[in-house]
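User: Second chain of the day. Same drill as before.
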Amino acid sequence: MAENYDHEDYIAIVSIATTSIFGIISNGLALYMTRKMSCFRNAFGILCSSFSICNIQAIFVLLTWITIVINVKNPLLSSSEFFLTRLIGVFTNGGWFGSLFVHFFIALNRLCAIAYPMKYKKLWSEAKALVAGIISWSLGMTICMIHLFKDCSLLFNEKTYDFNYQDSFYGNICFKCDIGLTFITVITMTFLDVVTLIKILAHQRTVVGESAISSAARNEKEMLFFKQSCLLGFIFLANTAILAGNHFISGEKWFRFAAGTMPFIIALSMDGFLFLIFNLKMIWNEFGWCQQHRQLDHRRHIVTRF
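Assistant: Same format as last time:
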């Protein structure tokens, strides 16, 4: 029986570690690109860096803690009596909500860029975007501070391989509030994205001649972001729906693991991955241009030597 448990623990750790490492790498690359690429040295780039940091926080804390709990096998590590177990829930869930709130500001940022292009730089300076990122993280962490109370704690259960709220009146309230806040945030983001899309389409119909040609590239980027945002919103909503419903469908631990822990990590991982995929052309152009520039400088250097 012990060997069977060890085998199951191994499967759980490998699955979590593989997905988490993928998420840390994808969000890490997204963070690197937004800080190094000239086209992201603006308010939008700072906001994208912010959600990458929030995602990395949640994934890293979750991976580290799950690995410790499964290997140590100490019941205290899954108990609300231990302060550290409650603190882990704050940092994991805080990273999730921080990322969600940043995406809300990104949707608002894109709407302002389309609806108020002349006032955009005043509305969204890099300093204001940084403040929005800090507010998002701080608000997410502050909301989740409630997990420090024993009856409201969010704990990782070593036996079921998933995070659970305390089975109490206050624990159930926290669970429902988390689900509700996530749905409200994503729906609000979707509403802002739809308004942005309407503005883009209206702009395309009114602009003609040379102005239409000059704005085509900009509209293409905005449409690309709209598709990315819609797909990401669907992933967040699907993850939340799965988390909300899996407890009512089955209590079997592998089902709860597959419908609880894994979708949560996958959603955060896909956030960074989708950013890389949808901005692949810009990334390629940026680094391709840099490489060509270096080659030209090298050739000029060789010529001057003769």
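The beta strands are 154-157, 162-165.

User: Great, on to the next one.
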